[in-house]
Amino acid sequence: MSHHFRHTTLLSTYDYPPRVVQFPTRDGKQVYTSEIFAQNVFSLRTLSNALPKPVYEQFVKQMRGRQVMDKNTADSVAHAVRVWAMDRGATHFTHWFQPQTESTAEKHDSFLSLKSTLGDGWEEHVPMDAFSGSQLIQSEPDASSFPSGGMRTTFEARGYTVWDTTSPMFLQSGPHGTMILYIPSIFISYNGEALDEKTVLLRSAEALSKAAVELLNVIGNDSSTVNHVYTTLGIEQEFFLVDRGLYVLRPDLKITGRTLIGAVPPKHQQMEDHYFGRMPSRAMATISEAELELLKLGVPVKTRHNEVAPAQFEMAPIFEDAALAVDHNLLTMEVLSKVAHRHKLKVLFHEKPFNGVNGSGKHCNWSMSTNLGENLLEPTATPESNTKFLLCLVAVLNAVYIHGDLLRAGIASASNDHRLGANEAPPGIISVFLGTHLTDVLDAIAENRPIIRSSIPHVEHIKVGGTTLDVKISTMPEISRDLTDRNRTSPFAFTGNKFEFRAVGSKQSPSFPVTVLNAAVASSIREITAALRKQQGDKLSLTEDDKMSVIKEYIIKTKNIRFEGDNYSDAWVKEAESRGLPNIKKSLDAFTKLLEPVHAGMLTQNGIFTESELHSRYHILLEKYTKDILIEASTLRSIIMTKVLPAAYEFRKSLAEGIKALNDIGAAAPEENVLEQTAPAVRNLQAQIALLADNIAKVSAIRDAKDAARAVQEELLPVMEDVRVSADFMEELVDDKIWPLPKYSELLFT
Question: Signal peptide position in this chain (predicted)?
Answer without folding.
Answer: none
